[in-house]
Amino acid sequence: MISRNSIMMCVLAAVMLAYLCFAMMITADSASRDNLRPGIDVSVSDTLMTNFITPADIIRECGLDPDTLGRCRIGDFGLDALEKRLSSSDKVESVNAWISTTGKVHVDVVPMTPVARIFEKGSRSYYINSQGKRISADPRYHLDVPVVLGDFDSVYPATRLLPLLDHIARRPDLSALVSTLVQQPGGNIIIVPSIVGHVINFGDTADVDDKFRRLRSFYLQVVPHRGWEMYDTIAVKWRGRVVATKRKGRLAPTALATVFEDSLVYNEFDDVETMTDPTTVADGLADEEKILPQLPAPSPATKPGPGR
Q1: With 0-12 CB in 10 A as exposed, 13-18 as middle and 19+ as buried, what is 78?
Q2: How many whole angstroms separate alpha carbon 268 and alpha carbon 256?
Q3: 98: alpha, beta or left, given left = phi > 0 and alpha = psi -120 to 50?
């Protein structure tokens, strides 16, 4: 016959076993809440929809394996170190890393937005943003922006072209027109348009809107009568006038910049230098000044900007 004490001992053992199982479940659940959840949620504030940097690029830049984050305790994860690592990238303007109440790592990124790709003679190419900050050119990161070539120094740095580049970027018609900008020794700016067969001698970055207005007037009022093959250089560098240089002979194909992703250097613009030689421009002034007087401004109803 089972004694009363034996029954009590069995009941107490069952209670203790149930309590132990419950305690283990609570401990395991608490430990799981103390750990991160696998994966990283990345938000890229790409307001211009350039796709220069994608969430996958940011995860790669983190240097972490998102699938193994579940093994890391929340208190041991270094948010500051993650932000510092991402901020060191020249393709990231700002970053904010945080952990949600569910234990998921979130990374909010504002990327750099390139406005041009710069090619300096004998140097690796790079991008610049609207503040003039350099962004390294990498085959993984590519954006279709105007190409800028030339000789840059402390007197005529590449950043002096930023007002012109900003003006072009804000105008879809100009963005479609302008293919390449070339800065010559001495700072003279040449625009190579997407309309092949001629270049635009722009001079400097002063009076940008007025220069493009005069160029548009030339395209609308002169080219339909003379044809696209008549001139090899259209100069708007002189205030209040457009000077077009007649083509002398057949123009060879323009030697556009050749990009080698391993060396990232460019070839010379021999044709541009020939067409904007001071002697050639002087001849153009003599030949065309009577034919191309100061062009009238378009009517108020006409929006300035070159047509295609």
Answers
A1: exposed
A2: 8
A3: beta
> What tens-digit pLDDT sequence spans the chain (308 residues)?
566 666 666 667 676 776 666 555 544 444 445 888 888 999 999 876 777 888 988 998 888 888 888 888 888 888 999 999 999 988 899 999 999 988 999 999 999 888 899 998 778 889 998 888 888 887 777 778 889 998 888 889 999 999 999 899 888 888 888 889 999 988 899 999 988 788 999 999 999 999 999 999 999 999 888 888 888 899 999 998 999 988 876 655 555 544 444 444 444 444 444 444 544 444 444 444 444 444 444 444 443 444 33
Sheet containing 126-129, strands listed edge to edge, beginning at the edge strand earlier in sequence = 134-136, 126-129, 114-120, 147-150, 178-183, 189-193, 199-203, 231-235, 243-246
